[in-house]
Amino acid sequence: MRTKAAGAAFTLVLLAAPWVFSSSLGLNLLTQMGIAAIVCLSYNILLGQGGMLSFGHAIYSGLGAFAAIHALNAAVLPVSLVPVVGGLAGAGVALLLGWLTAQKSATTFAMVTLGLGELVAALAWLLPQVFGGEAGVSGNRVAGASPFGITFGPQLQVYYLVAAYTLVCTGLMYAFTRTPLGRMLNAVRDNPERVEFVGFDARRIRFMAVVIAGFFAGIGGGLAALNFETVTADVLGSQRSGAYLLFTYLGGSGHFFGPVVGAVLMVLANVLLSGITKAWLLYVGLVFIAMVVWVPGGVVSLAGRLRWRDVPRYAAWALAFAGFAAMVEMVYQLQLRASLGSELRFLGLALDAASGWSWAGAVAVLVVGGVLGMRK
Q1: Does pTM top 0.85 for this prediction?
Q2: pLDDT in tens, 131-183
Q3: DSSP secondary structure string, 297-340?
């Protein structure tokens, strides 16, 4: 019953979101969130279900994106089916690489995926005929046929295509968690020796999980290719793989919908927070460290832990963080924006990075917030 209710709520959110956030920016953000949700959920098949820490998941989403953009330019399929090409490409690559990566688990698996990720990213620059070099490969999603008047020109039509794929892929990935293979993957994560003892091949189970995750990641890459109409070699880089890991964990790898929350946070950080401050990666890193140390269950686990009596303490820590962020912004102002002067605005306040009073105020806020936050 709870599963059906969660599924119905998720469907309702996907359908109604464009009516709430109807601006061009809102639709763009929602589209990217849907794409990121598919890729982060696929990553969680490895991390959350299988306990496999991968540093090369962008291989599958990135190569899926390149396969999709080439399929779009070849115009051999309806535009709505182009993401499936990305999925098949992701699964095909996973069939090749998964045979190697699934041989080992734990640290060895992580190191092999890291090496493969760097290898594929480097190869992309050596094959400009396939990957387009620095300019990447571009396509035009409105050049083909337009059945029922659907051209995929308006962002709203692209959003609903992404929403349909998100809904189907999420349902399939949830169903996978309930299958015997999904259960065995949990067992491989928890105790691979016992799995081997009762007669199952842990390497084969890990291999199948890598292929399934690669398929869904490739679909996410194909949708991204349709949305942006350009794919560059950056989508294969280690930074992209690290983002999938970081935000899947932030959302909560132990909960099925945790990666969806992480995907929302990833898009908000990449699009909105990066537009507000150049220090956004520093803040994301600090939040990630804090979550790993104090909230290992991710953001979704906070829902069951929040108590009204703790609100003042959380507010005090937020105050301390604001003081720290004010100092960071003043450092960035002096180091990276010195030509614009020493004055800046932070949370509606006017600060002067060259003034001792601004630094004293930021330190005072940090100390007061920290002291209040440590009180029980």
Answers
A1: yes
A2: 998 889 999 988 777 777 788 889 999 999 999 999 999 999 999 999 999 99
A3: T-HHHHTTT--GGGHHHHHHHHHHHHHHHHHHHHHHHHHH-GGG
